[in-house]
Amino acid sequence: VENLQKHIRKQIGLAHEFEKLLLSDERFKIIHEVLMGLVCFRLKGSNELNETLLKRINGNGKIHLVPSKIRDMYFLRLAICSKFTESEDIQFSWQEVQSLANDVLAEGRPGN
C-alpha cells in the first residue's frame, strides 16, 4: 500500500508542476482542477487553434496528449501515469507544448 501511495503522490506532484508552468504563461488556461495525474488545459483562443496545437504535438512524436471536448470547448489533456516519469519529463513536455504553441500562434498572425 505504501508504494502505491508514494506512486500516486508523485504523479499528483508532477501534475501540479505542469500546472504551475501553464499558469506562468498567460496564453494558456487551465480547464479544470488538476486531479490525480491529469492536467486539462488549452490555449486561449478558438477550438481550431487548440486542435492545430494538438495535431502538431502528437505529430512530432516527442510527447502525446489526449484531446477532449466538453460543451463545445476543445482542450488538451496531459496524463501522468508512468512510474518512470520525472520532473525532467515534465519540463521537456512543457518545452514542447510552449514551442509548438509559439509556432501555431505565429502562423495565425497577419503577414505570415
Automatic annotation (TrEMBL):
Signal peptide: none annotated. Its cofactor is pyridoxal 5'-phosphate. Its EC number is 4.1.1.28. Keywords: Catecholamine biosynthesis, Decarboxylase, Lyase, Pyridoxal phosphate. It comes from the Eukaryota. PANTHER family: AROMATIC-L-AMINO-ACID DECARBOXYLASE (PTHR11999:SF167), GROUP II PYRIDOXAL-5-PHOSPHATE DECARBOXYLASE (PTHR11999). This is Aromatic-L-amino-acid decarboxylase.
